[in-house]
Amino acid sequence: MIPILKLVGMPNAAEIAPSTLVGISELALPVMLIAGKNIAVQSVFFITVLSTVQIIFFTESANAMLETSIPLSVLDLVIIFLERTIIAIPLVALASHLLF
């Protein structure tokens, strides 16, 4: 994730990279991973918004997909989560660059 974060121009890319993938588990966990570190406000905003987007997308769409007759496995849901994260990163980075 570090090269992707550097590509979109996020400060502290190496420090926030682990937080970009743990949003599947809980809303607060990504922010707790960067708490207490000297992280730029723009990066904290980025992680906060990205984790919110991830958990909303995953919980709502995973439930809907599992309720249908489409044969999906847990691996399929994780792949969809990763695809949505890759799509969300440049959008959230753009918003953070506009605000900060």
Descriptive terms for the model:
100 residues; 5 helices
Summarize the structure.
With 100 residues, the chain is mostly helical. Helix content is 69%, strand content 0%.
Order of helices and strands: HHHHH
Main beta sheet: strand number and arrangement? Answer: none
Beta strands, count: 0
Radius of gyration: 14 Å
| Count of runs of 4 or more consecutive helical residues | 5
Derived from helix and strand composition plus strand pairing, the structural class reads: mainly alpha
Q: Domains counted in the coordinates: how many?
A: 1
The helicity comes to 55-70%
Average pLDDT for all residues: 89
Distance between the termini: 21 Å
Uncertain residue ranges: none
Question: Could you describe the 3D structure shown?
Answer:
- This protein has 100 residues and is an all-alpha fold.
- It has one domain (2-99).
- It is built from 5 helices and no strands.
- α4 (41-67) packs antiparallel against α5 (74-99).
- It is elongated and about 45 Å long.
Write the layout of secondary structure elements.
Layout: H1 2-7, H2 13-16, H3 29-34, H4 41-67, H5 74-99
